[in-house]
Amino acid sequence: MILAGDIGGTKTHLALFEEGGSARRPRLDRKLPSREFPSLIEAARSFLRDAPEPPTRAVFGIAGPVVDNRCEATNLPWHVDGDKVGAALGGIEVALMNDLETTAHGLELLGPRDLETLNPGTARPGNRALIAAGTGLGEAFLLGGGRRWRPSASEGGHSDFAPRNPLEDELNLWLRAKHGRVSYERILSGRGLAEVYRFLAATRRGDEPEAFARAFAGAEDPAAMVTAAALDGSCERARLAAETFLGVYGAEAGNLALKFFAVGGVFVGGGIAPKMLPLMRDGGFARAFCDKGRLSALVRDIPMSVVLDAQTALWGAAAVALATPAHKEPA
Fold this sequence. Notes:
Layout: E1 2-7, E2 11-17, E3 28-33, H1 40-48, E4 57-62, E5 66-67, E6 70-72, E7 79-81, H2 82-88, E8 93-98, H3 99-107, E9 115-119, E10 128-133, E11 137-144, E12 149-153, H4 166-179, H5 190-202, H6 210-217, H7 222-232, H8 236-259, E13 266-269, H9 272-280, H10 284-290, H11 296-300, E14 304-307, H12 312-323
Parallel strand pairs: 1-4, 4-8, 10-13, 13-14
Antiparallel strand pairs: 1-2, 2-3, 5-6, 6-7, 9-14, 10-11, 11-12
Helix pairs in contact: 3-12, 5-7, 5-8, 7-8, 8-10
């Protein structure tokens, strides 16, 4: 039995797979609220109480930089050591990977129905890029040229934000005064969307119903409120916040196309894009993606799609685990 996991700041999705089985057909899976557990070890132990048999090895995709099979999660108070997790789970082999790297592995398992194209372009042999906004912002690239790609993680979501227009200049200054340094994740995340809304409120842009203002002030998930109001048109300021957010998001996706020369395609994953898809279809996201000055024609010809399958990172972790031969002690 193989254990795979997608570990994020909000949820931990764990699943068991049969040896030799499909990476998209778990025998058992469950989503756990990450912050209700003090560690990955405790979350895994809770999940495995219902397991038909113990796993022989595991692969976990985790939101944070992984070095020497260790990770300090970026948006979760967990310090994860793969060797210690393996020892606690019965001495099994455990591999930690960045969650965008496992998502990148999962891309190869997706079909046409799992994607929605926002910029058709023309896919060519070469690299691919992946960007995913959710609790945080992840970025990865896939090195390749034939029918297979080799994923590699990055921490590009923490690179410095580069504003493109006067509104984004103001947003940058407002965030810098509040936080000191402004990364792309400071904007392109659930918390970032809420911050964009607060900036628009502070600078008195867009109308805001009084009832919405009261609800937003006490909301447990203000970003979800902004998204819902932007979609149903009930709050002009929420719509403006979503448009500003998506402009930055599309621009950074285009930046990845240039940085990684991703002529094989750019993929937009994470939990936010599918929820904002009706707003992304109006063309603003794709225009920001393609607006690259002298290289706009190059980027316009690069395919860009939204990943619709929310479990792609889990499928990728399972695919890596299933493809990894079990360790055997020498005779």
